[in-house]
């Protein structure tokens, strides 16, 4: 579904991503783990069209997209939940969800609102509330719900557990699994390596902009190298 080949990204003279290649198959959860500053967010932003690569290709469902505008990439079926949530302050929960459906012209929008409310019941309770007044966990749920309203076939999640209480983290990861079971493929960027790999079909380890390890989620969880670097073992 998603194929990244020999991707390199620069910020001015600084190279943040070095010749990275990986793929995501339809129906998978793929986790990309690594320390802060490893290049994970840069890769997601490049896939979403927010950053242009200096080299390499990004192919989504057989179509090269690394030169496409972000809104065209969203319309093609790929949506990102950004690090830090970035809900729209001054807009209600309902209005934030409407922004997620902004590019849609089909008749299924109303039914999809109901699906989002089923996944995130707290959002239905807060529909007329300013999104900025939600707790961190509730804002994360809203950001995920907003992305799902674009009806993506591939969902990119950037650090969904960051800054959340343990009870919210558990709930968010449970919902990620549910999203996959309902037919949406997921590329998950996470510093919480144990949680990310425990739900992943496959994973990649990124260090200083390079992929240094890959395998199934369980293989990486069992790896001495991963345990020492990311799991405190």
Automatic annotation (TrEMBL):
SUPFAM superfamilies found in the cross-reference section: P-loop containing nucleoside triphosphate hydrolases
Gene3D superfamilies, alphabetically?
Answer: P-loop containing nucleotide triphosphate hydrolases
Residues spanning the membrane: none
* Keyword Nucleotide-binding found: yes
- Gene Ontology biological-process annotations: L-amino acid transport
Source organism's superkingdom? Answer: Bacteria
Outline the extent of the ABC transporter domain.
Answer: 2-233
Task: Tell me the keywords, alphabetical order.
Answer: Amino-acid transport, ATP-binding, Nucleotide-binding, Transport
* Family matches, as InterPro entries: AAA+_ATPase, ABC_branched_ATPase_LivF/BraG, ABC_transporter-like_ATP-bd, ABC_transporter-like_CS, BCAA_Transport_ATP-bd_LivF, P-loop_NTPase
Mention one GO molecular function: ATP hydrolysis activity
Keyword Nucleotide-binding part of the UniProt annotation: yes
Protein family membership: Belongs to the ABC transporter superfamily.
Name used for this protein in its record: LivF
């Amino acid at each position: 579904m998603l194929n990244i080949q020999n991707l390199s990204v620069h910020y001015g003279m600084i190279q943040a991503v070095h010749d990275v290649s990986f793929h995501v198959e339809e129906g998978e959860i793929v986790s990309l783990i690594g320390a802060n500053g490893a290049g994970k967010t840069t890769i997601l932003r490049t896939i979403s069209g927010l950053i242009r690569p200096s080299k390499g290709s990004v192919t989504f469902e057989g179509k090269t997209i690394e030169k496409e505008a972000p809104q065209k990439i969203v319309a093609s079926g790929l949506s990102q939940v950004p690090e830090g949530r970035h809900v729209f302050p001054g807009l209600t929960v309902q209005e934030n969800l409407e922004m997620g459906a902004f590019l849609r012209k089909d008749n299924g929008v109303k039914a999809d609102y109901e699906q989002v409310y089923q996944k995130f019941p707290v959002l239905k309770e807060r529909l007329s509330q300013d999104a900025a007044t939600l707790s961190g966990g509730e804002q994360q749920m809203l950001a995920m719900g907003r992305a799902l309203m674009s009806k993506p076939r591939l969902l990119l999640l950037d650090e969904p557990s960051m800054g959340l209480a343990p009870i919210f983290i558990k709930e968010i990861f449970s919902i990620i699994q549910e999203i996959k079971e309902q037919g949406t493929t997921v590329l998950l960027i996470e510093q919480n390596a144990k949680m990310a790999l425990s739900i992943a079909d496959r994973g990649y380890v990124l260090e200083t902009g390079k992929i240094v390890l890959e395998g199934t989620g369980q293989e990486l969880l069992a790896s001495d190298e991963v345990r020492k670097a990311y799991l405190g073992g």
